[in-house]
Amino acid sequence: MRENAPEHGALRTPRAAGLAGIVFALLLAAAMVLVRLAIPEGADAVTARGFTDSGRRDALRAALALVPFAGIFFLWFLGAIRAHVGAVEDKFLATVFLGSGLVFTATLFGAAAAAGAVLAVGRPPGLPPSPVAWDFGRHLAYTLMTGYAMRMAAVFVSSLSVMGHRLGVLPRPLTIAGFVTVLVLLFVSSNVPWAELVLPAWSLLTGLHILRVGRGKGGG
């Protein structure tokens, strides 16, 4: 009876990781889209006066409400994968995997806090924030997200892809997709709007794969 318990737990862990990865992907993608619509960059950037529009402010509020839950499910995703890999994990890769995941979560929350500050400086309602506060908060939020959080996410995806390839738990196409995601997050996301959506797309594919494999083992 006790001998079967660890095996049963090992079978349940991939399902937990898969579900957490899927929920994280959906929440993060929704938050990213809402933020991009509320506070776009580049030629379509909204001015401080334009941000008094209630639709943009509501979109940003909705995005900020989703970010903490996205972070929670990401940490669950990270923990469930580590529990599944267990004693066979490479210590170096495991350290990079864990560290980059934690820094990504912290930086994601920092970007959300900066975006929340943009929302707060618009008070009293109906009045635009000052141009200086607006530019500082908007650029800080995007710098934290695209310049730092996405690069930490690239390290996370890279370490997981390498571990998955070495242990044979990720198929070759998903490993290749992981490295393509790494390149986009490292070199493209800070310059090309919407490129950061490759992260939730990769997480969704990985979560679906882990969930499918977990169900297959459970059925056996």
UniProtKB/TrEMBL annotation:
Chain ranges passing through the membrane: 16-39, 59-80, 92-120, 140-162, 169-188, 194-211
Entry protein name: DUF4386 family protein
Coiled-coil residue spans: none
Keyword terms: Membrane, Transmembrane, Transmembrane helix
Domain of life: Bacteria
